[in-house]
Design goal:
The chain is an alpha+beta fold. It contains four helices and twelve strands. A hairpin with a 2-residue loop joins strand 11 (196-203) and strand 12 (206-210).
């Protein structure tokens, strides 16, 4: 488990087919209960948040219980997941477009960026751009990229807190993943194993492993 966190880590994504179950599982594990983040009205999802320190947070995401099923599959493969789990992570580069261009030059295409938005429970509108998720293609081990633009970062609001002490990545082809991470400008160890990631969090229940 790496205790050196990647610079620019924006957030971790924990999710499953039932949003309330995901929130409850994290609360039972860590002793911290996430607070409502908002709803992604065009995508049929909603999220809850826990801060992980300045500029970083844990997102718990699942189908929006107040929304109809969207016409397209939900992000992160939520429609096909079983129990909630740590799905992927996001990296926040200083320049999203330049990082996409540089990654392509170095042999990895993170895909085009797209615009998204959501409203928090207090009505605040957040807008951001991000690249496509990698859950289906790489088990979520390679991060997607995100740029919050002029919006306030989600971690800037008052959130319940946990400390992120470590992040571990594993993949059946770790050399390929290391090359792709390098193309994105980040350097973190990748172990050999089934594709996935895990995080060490510290809070009221001490150090716990989220995976």
């Amino acid at each position: 488990m790496s205790s050196v966190l990647p610079p620019g880590l924006d957030h971790l994504v924990f999710g499953g087919p039932d949003l309330a179950q995901g929130v409850a599982e994290v609360a039972d594990l860590t002793g911290v209960t996430a607070v409502a983040g908002g709803r992604h009205l065009d995508h049929g999802t909603a999220n809850f948040l826990i801060g992980l320190g300045p500029g970083a947070y844990l997102e718990i995401i699942g189908p929006d219980p107040q929304a109809a099923d969207p016409p397209q599959p939900r992000w992160f493969g939520l429609d096909g997941t079983g129990a909630p789990r740590l799905l992927t992570w996001a990296l926040r580069p200083a320049d999203l477009d330049a990082t996409i261009s540089s990654a392509r030059t170095h042999g990895y295409d993170p895909g085009p960026s797209r615009s998204m938005s959501r409203h928090t429970d207090d009505g605040t509108a957040l807008q951001w751009r991000l690249t496509g998720d990698t859950v289906a293609s790489r088990g979520g081990v390679v991060p997607f990229l995100i740029d919050w633009g002029a919006s306030a970062h989600p971690s800037a609001r008052e959130l319940p807190m946990l400390e992120l002490r470590g992040l571990a990545l594993r993949h059946p082809n770790p050399e390929q993943v290391r090359a792709e991470l390098s193309a994105l400008g980040t350097d973190i160890g990748v172990g050999t194993g089934p594709a996935g990631l895990s995080a060490v969090l510290a809070g009221p229940h001490g150090e716990v492993l989220l995976r």
